[in-house]
Amino acid sequence: MQHTRRAFLGAAGAAAIAGCTGERDPGIGDDEGSSGEGEGGSGSPDPETTSVSLVLNWRIGGLHAPYFAAQENGFYAAEGFESVDIESGQGSDFAAQQVGVGNAEFALTSSDQVLNVTSKGLSPQCVGVVMQRNPVVVFSSRDSFGDPLEGADQLRGRTLGSGPGMVRQMTEAYLESEGVLGEVEYVDSGFDTVQPVSYTHL
User: Fold this and answer.
1) How many helices and strands in the chain, by DSSP H and E?
2) Mean pLDDT by 10 residues, the chain (202 residues)
3) Which end of the chain, C or N, has fewer beta carbons within 10 A?
């Protein structure tokens, strides 16, 4: 039985994995290379792989439970992998770079960071999508905000905090598209945004 990177994706797919790989996978986006093993062609099969690493986008948390569940339930082993080393990350940019420089076979990252490292001369390849919609949300506590938060117009004159990096960039882009960016005081609340919102008023 041939154990390929594609088989790893199949096993992890039950856990909704996403990542990128620094090597081009024959058969993906290449008509001439679409005849790999299992596709009825006569081309060379993918190289055998029995051990891979997966770098997460941040410190291990609830978001990463599916990858450990797949491991605990034997999904990876069922596909013939001797080991899948799941490593804690230091941000989506770090994860994408680790794949781009060849330190890991797979990483959980974001599309903007794939583009970012590609612009620096590396060549990660997207192989799957975990979230079909943007997970960035604006939220508040009932006591501090009062009314239900239903639209960006309600943020005029308010103070909005977020962590640095992608979350801030995407939030600012949203506020700009809604025409309220100039009327919102934006502050850096660090990565633990939930705690400041719990103890302070907007």
Assistant:
1) 8, 7
2) 53 42 40 42 55 91 90 91 92 90 90 86 85 75 81 90 76 90 86 48 36
3) N
